[in-house]
Amino acid sequence: MPLNIAVLVKAALNLNMLKVDPNGSVNVEETPLAISEYDKNAIEEGIRLKEKHGGKVIALSILTWGPLQRRNQEIERIAREVLSMGVDEFHLILDEAVLNSTTKETAYIAAHLLKKLGNFDLYITGEYSQDTSSSQFASRLAKLLGVNLVTFVNKVELSNNEIIVQRSTENEIEIIRASLPCVISVTGEINQARIPTLRNILQAKNKPLIKYDLNQLGLKIEKAQMSQEYFVLPIKRKKIFIEGKNYEEIAEKLINHLLEEGVIKI
Q1: When you count CB atoms within 10 A of the terminal residue's CB, does the N or C end of the chain come out lower?
Q2: pLDDT beneath 50, residues of the chain
Q3: Looking at residue 46, what is its pLDDT?
């Protein structure tokens, strides 16, 4: 059965390239963006399902980190990267009013656009974004769309009009059946995201990249007036130097230190 799949992608702050001011606050405007790590797994799973069952995969993203004018080129690069992985078309929402939005606003906007784009069998998200890590988006989206929801998914199979998923919790592994349409949020264990080939990258330049603002969607959002600031957590190294007459003595001292710190247990 051919599938109509929507993958939700966030352009998140790149945690490996954080720009930090002298007072310890993260300089959001200077920090580059990257595809949120688990969203890469969501994209890959969507592509694999399309390759197996046929159909179409679209990606949808809402830019939440500004400044808008400076991010235009950066977000387009991310969109082309997603398209080069095998997605058929990319839908991008760019609007000043959406910057610094929470999952409440972004889920509302995404649900509105998805309904306009058509009926989807499956909506795939990452379990959480690598920057804000709220884990709320998938559940909010499913509620607004009025469809089933399964979270923490690490394996997916399809049978007729049902999805069969494996999900892991702290205490057990569950196998769940749910009828389509359905929203699933996936973890990093579900797959290894592919690296696009040069041919894929060149082909991505000709794939549709469709941009919207809220006026085009006929939407207005009301956001709580909040002042947000992010700080890095300073970590002071203990600078413990281990010396000894031989390797055995050094190893014994190292193990004792690790036991004292609770890093290892015997």
Answers
A1: C
A2: none
A3: 97
Domain limits of the chain? 3-217, 236-266
The DSSP H or E segment spanning 249 is: helix 247-261
| Residue whose C-alpha is closest to residue 165's, from 140, 142, 183, 192 | 183
Q: Which CATH architecture has domain 3-217?
A: 3-Layer(aba) Sandwich (3.40)
pTM for the full predicted model: 0.86
> DSSP code of 126?
E
Cβ–Cβ under 8 Å, residues 212 and 93: yes
pLDDT given at position 20: 86
